[in-house]
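tool=predict chain=A
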Amino acid sequence: MEETPTPHAQWLRGVLDMCLLALMAKAPVYGYEMTVQFSKAGLDVADGSIYPALARLRKRQLVEVERRTGEGGPARTYYRPSEAGLQLLQSWSLDWKEFTSSISSIVTHTARKEP
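tool=predict ok
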């Protein structure tokens, strides 16, 4: 069985939509800024992952977009959660807390056992 040094990329792929909605819920944000915020949080998320996820969220009507002219640069597309997106984020957040608590109880219990 092939081991990966860190499964972060796989974990993040599973929660990327929730993380994007959470970033947007703080304030409207554009794509590159999301990449920067992920990086500041210690997560390596490429534009190639963010933009398809944003398109998926938009298609499901979970986000709203607004084009704003840039200061001396091109217009940017800002994203914010729709009402449906905020409701889904709230539901996912509760599910996430329960899920991580369950996983943590298993991992913590296993990690404490002596070999």
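Strands lie at 29-30, 63-68, 76-81. The chain has one domain: 8-109.
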